Amino acid sequence: MTSPAPDALLGPADVRELATALGVRPTKQRGQNFVIDANTVRRIVRIAQVHPDDVVVEVGPGLGSLTLALLEVADRVTAVEIDDVLAAALPATITARMPDRADRFALVHSDAMHVTELPGPAPTALVANLPYNVAVPVLLHMLEAFPSIERTLVMVQSEVADRLAAPPGSKVYGVPSVKANWYAEVKRAGAIGRNVFWPAPNVDSGLVSLVRRTEPLKTTASRREVFAVVDAAFAQRRKTLRAALAGWAGSAAAAEAALVAAGVSPQARGESLTVEEFARIAEHKQNQPQEEESA
């Protein structure tokens, strides 16, 4: 493949010039903070271990800073953009700055939460600077909708990165930690300074790496059933699981029975459990007749 020109990536002046030409003012509502540093996007691509045969999906490409860096390396890149103006402008930016790679780029103008199929070959990697306000639901949706995604690297708010990568027993271990671990091995993969964004956010950013499990979690419970236990356990995280799961099980006694059958102490709390233990609890839920459902 032909190497792109050294100045193909967007620098601070390029980003501002593009934004001005498009009349784009980054909005807090959509969590828009554009990366203005070429070294940073190349670092993200490197940490994501993007290969020349990868088909990458990117969510929220914005003005195209990371998109261009991905196109330098990947076989194909498909970008999912919800913003009308940004979606309309991105193909022209790619064509202008990387004409020899433009046929390797596809755009999906949609809300990522509603995307269930993508053009071209199935994606093998997800790399994205995710809007902070929707990072977790978008990440989980993409992992569920596209099981072909083997590797993921997302840039999110530092606190969200901590939650996603937290191990059981950690103070910040919670719903995002368990649900992400259902799909993948999750770890922190670095920090990103505020000065590489425009406008500079008032929070720090972190990188999270997710490598999909080579084999799905061994359980007879469905993802929906396991996630229902997780949601119930953390909705009242200060309570013991016997109490927190009473509504889910139909009664505190039924919750205790499921916990004991799963080999989990009824006095334990959600933040101490692995995703495997949540799955075992889900397996042991007894079907309750409607009229017997009580606290």
From TrEMBL:
Compartments, as annotated in UniProt: Cytoplasm
Ribosomal RNA adenine methylase transferase N-terminal domain location: 40-214
Reaction(s) this enzyme catalyzes, per UniProt: adenosine(1518)/adenosine(1519) in 16S rRNA + 4 S-adenosyl-L-methionine = N(6)-dimethyladenosine(1518)/N(6)-dimethyladenosine(1519) in 16S rRNA + 4 S-adenosyl-L-homocysteine + 4 H(+)
Pfam families cross-referenced by the UniProt entry: RrnaAD
InterPro entries: KsgA/Erm, rRNA_Ade_diMease-like_C, rRNA_Ade_Mease_Trfase_CS, rRNA_Ade_methylase_Trfase_N, rRNA_adenine_dimethylase, SAM-dependent_MTases_sf
Coiled-coil segments: none
Source organism, top-level taxon: Bacteria
EC number(s) given by UniProt: 2.1.1.182
Keywords for this protein: Cytoplasm, Methyltransferase, RNA-binding, rRNA processing, S-adenosyl-L-methionine, Transferase
Function: Specifically dimethylates two adjacent adenosines (A1518 and A1519) in the loop of a conserved hairpin near the 3'-end of 16S rRNA in the 30S particle. May play a critical role in biogenesis of 30S subunits.
Similarity section: Belongs to the class I-like SAM-binding methyltransferase superfamily. rRNA adenine N(6)-methyltransferase family. RsmA subfamily.
Family annotation (PANTHER family): DIMETHYLADENOSINE TRANSFERASE, DIMETHYLADENOSINE TRANSFERASE-RELATED
Protein name: Ribosomal RNA small subunit methyltransferase A
Organism: Streptomyces coeruleorubidus
